[in-house]
Amino acid sequence: MKRLMYSGTGLLVLLLAFIGFNIATNSLLPGARLDLTEQKLYTISDGTRQILTDLEEPVTLYFFFSEGASKDLVVLRNYARRVEEMLREYERVADGKLRLHVIDPQPFSEAEDRAAEFGLQAVPLTQTGEQLYFGLAGTNELAQREIIPFFALEQEGLLEYELSRLINSLAQIEKPQIGLITGLPMAGGMNPMTGQATPPWVAYEQLQQIFDVQELDTDTDAIAEEIDVLLLVHPKTLSEATLFAIDQFVLRGGKLLAFIDPLAESDHSMEAMMDGMADGKASDLAPLLGAWGVGYDPEQVVLDSRLGMSVGRGQGQLPARHIGWLEVEKQFMSEDDTVTAPLQILTLASAGALKPLEGATTRFEPLLSSSNHSAMTPSSRFSRLQDPETLLNGFRADGEIRHFAARLQGEAKTAYPDGLEGRAAEYTEAANINVMLVADTDLLTDRMWVHVQDFFGQRIPQPWADNGGFMINALDNLSGSEALISVRSRGDFSRPFTVVEELQRQAESRYRASELRLQQQLEETERQLLELQQSQDPSQLTELSAEQEAAIQRFLDEKLEIRKQLRDVRYQLNADIEQLGTRLKVINIALVPALLTLGVLLWWLAARLRRRSARS
């Protein structure tokens, strides 16, 4: 048998057996695969299964992919195969409630006309002049339509969410009603500072995809009964009548999601510029917060040296740590709340702090929190902030943990027990309110969580944080539709290098004082040198005394020496990180192959010793 296995015939038999095994598995188990990704990106989530099994009426999907036009696009064809395999899995789980049609829209065919009728994106191929279709259209029994115009490769990490969102939209005949009151240009508009038109925020576009959004005026005096959830974003100009309407809405059982801010950096309204860079950009919900048992200071911003982001300072300059722009990692989110449990990272900018008031009747459940390396600072410090590292000057963490977002539930009373201007309060108390508060609005702006690319007129968002998912999760939770929550945050988001960031923070704490001292010495030397040069008579600059020339040369030498020391200090900031990179390279390039080689040699030696002992 051993001679047969090592002979040419034996090797041929093994090759034929291997080919037969692959053919059999491809035929009998076409969808079988092993998902080894950390977020299980290739495995259907429980939320998707719930959406598919809860389908009451049939949904029909039309998957268009141009086979002939894509014959030379290997990466795209592999992605198309993955899309089709996932759709087949959806069809299997739906158990007859989902019908899938795979269509190859040949040029000038009825299938191509139908793809265009659905509104799918046709991408011209410059090599052949053909049109490439790679999109999905869905319909329900009421002839409602939802489409994905084109499956962009950049959004592969969000594939399951996009498919599940489309099916969920077709399954919901009536979308939840969201009432929106905002003081920010979420729907797009004109930037008064630049005079240029601005597109809608990606968060707003996602909001419209899933919910029926009704925009309300900032002076509205009543919230309609059909509103399922009231969404407030930077409510800084609300009238007393609107505050009273919100109070009554919450007490009668309405759900509220409110984003307030001590400094909305995205507020470029004329009012904000007239009132001042800091004061005109604050929003509050007083006196409602006090009635709900929440403390909030609209003039204070949270700084956190542990969560501070690294931001660029321009070409040729080292990045700066901005301890007012924060990366809230998973460990600082509530693991028990369905809104934040699936999220990985959120980014905030000049956020405020929420806290429960003593004697409050409501339950204050934190959703997003700071580290204990935090402190509060006046929002006025951000008015003309040029270098974010100046926030580190005099910073002292007080060991307290601040809360950026919280859920409020429990008993509450009205903030207007006597009513308002002849209007009696219909609801004076409630046994249980359901409110979510967030002390930041900038997290919803595109620059804080998503990069948008233009793809043949189609806006392709590429998220690098979970900010948009946080808002949609909260609205899903408050409106009673949570199936998409477990699907939404399984995308391919960037992961922070926690070890590298910790090394950088430690280096900053060691060298920050030296850098400041040297910077001050450099400024003082330059000032003295300038004073000495300006004190000279311009007509006698060439007739300096030896003492004056020596003084100037001494200042120039001192200036050069200080600049050299400053460069050395800034180099040391990244020395530990460079050493870590070197160690990782040594491990990957030399140590791991050496260990594998040693393991193979030991295995070979052990096998040889066993054969020798067996013969003896």
From TrEMBL:
Keywords: Coiled coil, Membrane, Transmembrane, Transmembrane helix. Residues 38-138 form the DUF7088 domain. Residues 504-535 form a coiled coil. Residues 175-474 form the ABC-type uncharacterised transport system domain. The chain crosses the membrane at residues 586-606. The keyword Disulfide bond does not apply. InterPro entries: ABC_transp_unknown, DUF7088. This is ABC transporter. The lineage of its organism: Bacteria, Pseudomonadati, Pseudomonadota, Gammaproteobacteria, Pseudomonadales.
